[in-house]
Amino acid sequence: MKNEPAMDDDLRPECDLQNLRVRKVGLERKMSNPKTVEQLQERAAIYWPSEIARREKNSSIIPLLLKTQDCFISVLHLASKDPYDWTKILGFVEDLHPNIFLKHLCILSDIGGENLKRFAADLPEKFKSENFKFSFRGKNYDHEMKSLSDRKWSNPSLGLDGEGLQRRFDLTDAIRDVSTLILFGGLSTNDFLPDEIKDKCIIGSMLGDKPKLEKYIKERYIWVSRITGGATSNRMGHLAQNYVRDRLAQYLPDWDFSQTTIPGISQNEGRTDTKFDIVGKGPDNNYWGIEVSFQFTTNSVVERKAKLASERQRLLHEKGYKVAYVVDGAGNFERRSFVQDLINYSDCIINFSDGDIRRLAQTMKGDN
């Protein structure tokens, strides 16, 4: 090999590219793990990423129901003479779509998706021999359940899930049948209907009695708001977990993120495996347990995670596995002592920023 001529000019240190270090990018780039709450918070999202906000909008129905509640009550007041008046009135109401009208009925009667699927499975054979029979304002009615032949009474098919409620579903046979059953199930003369229909589906018996109907609806929605308010943090927690899981799956396509436990990891002497919000299993059977907490997480949950942090890390390290925490949100950063405990007993701790999620993926990949 020929000897390369020496570079003796003053620019040699800047021009000798062979001696320059290459800056790594993507999952190969090294990024340090924060040691303090301030470092973790420095580039934190603080507020929900737009993707989680979009998913939450599709999953949260209470604001929509409260917005249309007065219109729903007005329709019921007007539909007090004939049991099918509501079908005619809905055609003139712009904001109260038929599927939203039905959702109000389901919420007030405590009839959910599982109930509807069970009815669709059990009732077709019984309604083959006779129609749905009920009495209303001194008259008897026979209603043919046309939609039970395809057995498709479910939240998605009726437009009752978060996504479906964002758009209009026309008054299909299925929405008409289910609405009629929920309105007048308590007035039915069929002897084969389940007790839960006769006990819960009582709204039709109050049509025409304005004070009684309004009192019932308002009281029910107070109850519903309390139940759903307690469930909000749980729902948002799942959305946050799914967001992180989806991002990690994009960065680590050869990893398995379908489990929530790690074999042999237990905090009750082996009676049950410890559950994690997310479990990542690498191609070489290397595991990471990942816990996720955003601002809607309650104090008790955050405190529990912090108290378990030391023991969880010890158990995982004994098996050669690792633990990570994803922490963000204004509420969490107010609980600095808890967050510092998570930092102290983690193999990687990140916030919800895209850069930090990439850093976790890089750390997991490098550990595999």
Key attributes of the depicted protein:
elongated; four-stranded mixed beta sheet; two-stranded antiparallel sheet; 2 domains; alpha/beta; Trna Endonuclease, Chain: A, domain 1; 368 residues; 16 helices
| Main β-sheet description | 4 strands, mixed
Low-confidence stretches: 4-30
- Large-scale geometry: elongated
User: How large is the count of helical segments?
Assistant: 16
Q: Any idea of the CATH class of the largest domain? A: Alpha Beta
Average of per-residue pLDDT values: 83
- What distance lies between the first and last C-alpha atoms, to the nearest angstrom? 40 Å
| SSE pattern | HHHHHHHHEEHHHHEEHEHHEH
Q: What strand line-up does the widest sheet have?
A: 3-4-5-6
Report what the structure shows.
Helix 4 (62-78) packs across helix 6 and helix 12 crosses helix 16. Strands 3-4-5-6 form a 4-stranded mixed beta sheet, with helices on both faces. Strands 1-2 form a two-stranded antiparallel ribbon. It folds into 2 domains: 32-55 and 232-367, 3-Layer(aba) Sandwich (Trna Endonuclease, Chain: A, domain 1), CATH 3.40.1350; 81-207, no CATH class. The protein has helices spanning 12-15, 37-42, 50-59, 62-78, 85-89, 98-109, 113-122, 124-129, 155-158, 173-184, 195-200, 210-251, 299-318, 330-333, 336-344, 354-367, and strands at 132-136, 139-143, 278-281, 287-293, 322-327, 348-350. The protein has 368 residues and is α/β, with parallel strands linked by helices. Residues 4-30 have low confidence and may be disordered. A hairpin with a 5-residue loop joins strand 3 (278-281) and strand 4 (287-293). Helix content is 49%, strand content 8%.
